[in-house]
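Batch manifest, entry 17 of 40.
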Amino acid sequence: MLHLSFLKQFSRLAINAVRIPANVKNISTTAAVQFKITDQLWAEPMKKKKKMDPAIVKAREERRRKKLEKQIRRLEKNAKQLKPIDEIEPSLHILDQLGKRKRPALNLTPEQIEARALLNKEWARYKRQEYMANIAQIDRIMAAQKRALDMLYEESEDLYNEAIMPDLQLLPYSVDGTYATPPIKNYDSPDGEYIDISKKWGN
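Output type: structure tokens
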């Protein structure tokens, strides 16, 4: 009889233990998994928004607006300044000697200035006439060549094809030499400065 009462109490405890709520995330009915990573449930508690004084907010916005206006004015001031190019910038040594290198201005009379202006205009007219004469001569030569080729085509098509073939021996040119030169010893390469960050592995 004592044994039967003990079994009843044990069964009640087992039923109550089953009804105890458990974390379902740690229970799995699937096949056994040796290693399993659960989801990371990290979170930060919500920060309570602080009520700021409207005057402080307005002052911050005003400072930010003034800062942007200052940057815009600086950009507008330097808008017409071109980016300097180091390759064409003179060295400081030459700038220091600018007074010695600069030629003194010539004191010309109005008659001399007028004569030089007329001479420049006359030279410009002469070069233009020379250019137009060269263009006209080239046009006459090309027109005569075209007429001759047309007449040759009427006589014989074979002779025409031979005439229009380029003459590779007209300007003979040949070069003999190595395709790649050996490196020059102690040559300072103009590629610029660089830092070698390659890893050095010991033997």
